[in-house]
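Case study.
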Amino acid sequence: MGWETLLLGMMGMGGVFSGLTLLTLSLVGLRKTVSWMGLDEDGRGREEEPAPSPAPAPASPAPAPDAPAAPPIESTAATAGFSGPWRLASGTLAGPGAADWIRPAFRAAFRPPTEAAASGAETAMRVNGRDFAVRFLSLKGSIARMRVNGKDILVDLEDLPEGAALTAAPLPAAPPPAAAPTPAAPPPAPSKASAPKPPPPKPSAPAAAPPAAADGHLPVAAPIPGVVKTVNVKEGEAVKKDQVLFILEAMKMENEISSPAAGRMKEVRVQARDGVKQGQVLGRVTPE
Amino acid sequence: MFEKFITSTGFAHLQFGNLLMFAVGLFFIWAAIHKKWEPLLLLPIGFGILAGNIPSIPGFLLGVNDEGSVFYYLYFGVRTGIYPPLIFLGIGAMTDFASLLSNPKLLLLGAAAQIGIFITFAGAMAVGIFTVKEAGAIAIIGGADGPTAIFLSSMLAPNLLGPIAIAAYSYMALVPLIQPPIIRLLTTQEERRIRMKEPRAVGKVERIMFPIFGFLLCCLIAPGAISLLGMLFFGNLLREAVVTERLAETARTSLVDIVTILIGFCVGASASADVFLQVKSLGIFVMGALAFSLATAGGVIFAKIMNLIAREKVNPIIGAAGVSAVPDSARVAHHVGLHEDPANFLLMHAMGPNVAGVLGSAIAAGILWSLIGT
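After joint prediction, the assembly is written out as follows.
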């Protein structure tokens, strides 16, 4: 009986493993196929879906000093009220799977959403030698609908972690490479991203602290999707470092979201019972 | 006359075993209400145990095994394995497989954690008091999935269904106590602090394709899993298709609640003293604990093995979530991670292996059933 039992057990385990391995492979295949066929251009899923964007996300806690500077994107955005050039961290922008990079690129370029951006004017952008005509169709909350070379895409402008390397502030001039938050160019295809680590949910890592905040405010982002249970601060209130600002409930668990730095609450963007997505900015802190 | 009334009351037939089971039932109710351990399951089971241990009186049909009694018909869904697939339908409609789709290799963690099932199977055979079928039914406790355990034991060892289901649910309620020590034992602090890349956004096409192809693939491999996995994937398709949101809503709320009430109560009621209080039950509880611990260890160790070759490191804590027990073990992984690094939110990562564990244990059940059930 002993051997038979062992054999049975091994067969079973082998079955489970081979089954799930096959499933893994087919999922990878599915993903490749879907992105190859471009089926997911609009596949932002549903509203409640956590919508992190791996491509622009890596705020590169520690950008290697010799990281290749991102190709600057020339934008002749005069009509849209923008003035270039815009600096984007988008790595190699050519190739198929345009959705992989178009979205992050434009998300970065037109952030923060402005009325001008939503006015419907067409903007010509040149990215690595390719021309794009970008037209804003509408701006609903933070979701912008844009037409890029005749194709409509939805872009969530809130998705970008604020203060990340992708801030689309127009460059004053050609800044010294070290001074600007040097965007470590993410690899071409986000699916293969070998970014070392995700950006810290809260800028607790020294590198992501003040220097990363282009506009001087530190974002407090939701590390996981959930529902805001309590908001413990008001706008303008002084906060201490690690003071609990929000309680976020996810899967019946309460998670404390604390302040990245000592300072003052610049703004609070959520109320109790608001549903938030992963990476959504809950509020901003002005460090003092 | 008075004597007749006395003999017609339960008191006259009450045995010590029944009293003991009352205590067990009360403990479950207490644990559910006071300790809030899986109240949705433990409370119905606890009350069911009370109901199942009212001694039967000659001439009356009361128990789940007395053909013609009301409980007999309620128990029909357990005996024939109808309820568990309905629960799986609800779970499918509840579950967001995005974390799995975004990082498919996490599926392997869900497979690795099933090793607990098969080692326990061998262990239960080695003990010598169980038949092959009973050993298979006991081993599935290591799958840490109540409906799967009920389903397989109703197919393989209906006589042990009560103890097996109760052991499975008890250990699931005890996940927060069982898992953390094992995780800490097997990992270094450095490993527990690994931060993982944020999951990517998963598009609608992938979300819809997954339940369809996942179903075809899983059920072609383990046809025995068709009733569980078929319903799980069907429920998920209802959810992801969006156009059937109404059906998905019903499946994940009303339907799953109704079936949970019935299954919990019936399983409790099947645990009458004469079935429950035997040496085999003790063996089941011991083997169940073994299965759970091994499953946790299997997931954690496999995550460490993956880290040897993978470029993107996996935090081995989430390997423990590979023993289904959705979503408790994912929460446990999240808490263990937070304990080491208050800014490391593992919850969404742990959900990947967690739902993979459900698939894994259902496939394991299908394989066990087809290997030893015939």
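Observations recorded in class. Chain B touches chain A through 66 residues (CB under 8 Å). The longest helix of chain B spans residues 279-309. We will return to this complex in the next lecture.
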